[in-house]
Amino acid sequence: MVKYQASAIDRTFSALADPTRRGVLMRLKDEPGLSVSELARPLSLKLPGMMKHLDVLSDAGLVTRTKTGRTVAVTLSVEPMQEAMAGLKRYERFWTASIDRLVAFVEEDDA
Q1: Would you place residue 106 in the very low, low, confident or very high pLDDT band (cuts 50, 70, 90)?
Q2: Angle subtended at Cα 21 by Cα 20 and Cα 22, rounded to the nearest 5 degrees
Q3: Tens digit of pLDDT for each residue in 33-91?
Q4: Is residue 28 helix, strand or coil?
Q5: Tell me, what DSSP letter sits at residue 2?
């Protein structure tokens, strides 16, 4: 079987596909440096489940973890998100043209 090596942008979009992980990122945006326990508490996740989500986010480069004693603090890393936005920008002209054609069609139909 061939092993597939996902690119950085693939890992970013894969990590963002999960609503729990998106929620963790939004929370870290507002409250940087939360511990793993603090992140898991409102989601009713046990620590192993939270750690799996954080592993995916960490593999994508979206978060960093820092251990101080027994506490692991998690912070947001914006670089992969900026790269993903730049990637989406390259495709923007395609969907903008399609939307413009749709608007023209609807306006023509109304007239």
Answers
A1: confident
A2: 90
A3: 999 999 999 988 899 999 999 999 999 999 999 999 999 999 999 899 898 888 888 88
A4: helix
A5: P
CA distances from 29 to 24, 62, 95 (A): 9, 11, 29
Tokens 């970013």, residue located: 12
CB proximity list for 51: less than 8 A, separation 6 or greater? 36
* Rounded to 5°, angle at Cα 96 from 93 and 97: 85
Q: Please, are residues 27 and 38 in contact by the beta-carbon 8 Å criterion?
A: no
- State the residue for tokens 């999960």: 18
Dist CA 54 CA 65 (whole Å): 9
| Contact by Cβ (8 Å): 90, 101 | no
Asked if 35 and 55 touch (Cβ cutoff 8 Å), the reply is no
